[in-house]
């Protein structure tokens, strides 16, 4: 049986994917195909490159991710993700997506055409940067005359490319939607708007999943709360273990 897993975006919350994969592997569940949006594409790339969840956890806990943000002096964004290339090169190398050990689909939003696209070949850094380019926060990526932004804007649970490859699909969304009472500035309103957009397109796609995982305790972790990476990993791990223990999964 071929297993596919879709990993949502969610910035720091995306670290929960590491815990989810760790719990799955402890049950002998090792996905064959991976798709990811934004932070999910980064975790997905490491997993597709052959890193174990334990190795990914060690890297995540020893990396100062905020140091990879380069201030962008333009009207289009606050930061550029150019420095992300050094991070990916250090651990994965300059690779084409198709050269990874497992099949990976990187979800990006084509801003010009208004559609999601799923990249399974091409420059790994280019497409992960595009998939992670949250509007107004990070600079869009231009490629062949089109602008690309965060894949989660159009599809934050990219199950579509998994359908033809997988017998069993696992969807992981790290953005449970709680009630927000502190919408008192432009940034908090912007981030809340992103959450609502993500929630809307995830609801449409989770029905395709044979197993849907959405760790509820992640609601208290902010998108850019880098000091809570360990918490996110642990929450993903515990929640998934509980789900697996409660369900007699036939995988």
UniProtKB/TrEMBL annotation:
Q: Where is this motif: DGA/G?
A: 150-152
Cite the Gene3D superfamilies for this sequence: Cytosolic phospholipase A2 catalytic domain (3.40.1090.10)
Motif (GXSXG) spans which residues? 36-40
GO MF, any single term: hydrolase activity
- Which InterPro entries does this entry report, sorted A to Z? Acyl_Trfase/lysoPLipase, NTE, PNPLA_dom
What Pfam families does this protein map onto?
Patatin
Q: Share an example GO biological-process annotation for this protein.
A: lipid catabolic process
Domain of life, source organism: Bacteria
Instruction: Give the record's keywords alphabetically.
Output: Hydrolase, Lipid degradation, Lipid metabolism
Q: What is annotated as the active site? A: 38 (nucleophile), 150 (proton acceptor)
Q: Where is the PNPLA domain?
A: 5-163
Query: Does the record's keyword annotation contain Lipid metabolism?
Result: yes
Q: Which PANTHER family match?
A: NEUROPATHY TARGET ESTERASE/SWISS CHEESE D.MELANOGASTER, SLR0060 PROTEIN
Its recorded name reads Patatin
Organism for this UniProt entry = Persephonella marina (strain DSM 14350 / EX-H1)
């Amino acid at each position: 049986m071929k297993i596919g897993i879709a990993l949502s975006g969610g910035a720091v919350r995306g670290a929960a994917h590491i815990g989810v994969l760790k719990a799955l592997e402890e049950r002998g569940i090792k996905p064959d195909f991976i798709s990811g949006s934004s932070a999910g594409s980064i975790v997905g790339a490491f997993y597709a490159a052959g890193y174990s969840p334990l190795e990914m956890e060690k890297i995540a806990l020893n990396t100062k991710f905020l140091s990879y943000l380069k201030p962008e002096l333009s009207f289009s964004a606050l930061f550029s993700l150019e420095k992300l290339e050094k991070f990916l090169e250090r651990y994965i190398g300059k690779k084409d997506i198709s050269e990874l050990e497992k099949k990976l689909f990187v979800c990006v939003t084509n801003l010009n055409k208004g559609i999601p696209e799923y990249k399974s070949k091409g420059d790994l850094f280019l497409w992960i940067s595009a998939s992670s380019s949250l509007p107004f926060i990070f600079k869009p990526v231009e490629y062949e005359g089109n602008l690309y932004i965060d894949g989660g804007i159009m599809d934050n649970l990219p199950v579509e490319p998994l359908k033809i490859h997988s017998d069993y699909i696992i969807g992981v969304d790290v953005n449970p939607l709680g009630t927000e009472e502190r919408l008192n500035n432009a940034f908090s309103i912007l981030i809340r708007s992103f959450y609502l957009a993500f929630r809307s397109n995830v609801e449409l796609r989770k029905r395709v999943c044979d197993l849907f995982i959405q760790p509820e305790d992640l609601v208290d972790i902010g998108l850019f709360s880098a000091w809570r990476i360990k918490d996110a990993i642990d929450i993903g791990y515990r929640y998934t273990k509980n789900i697996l223990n409660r369900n007699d999964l036939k995988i």
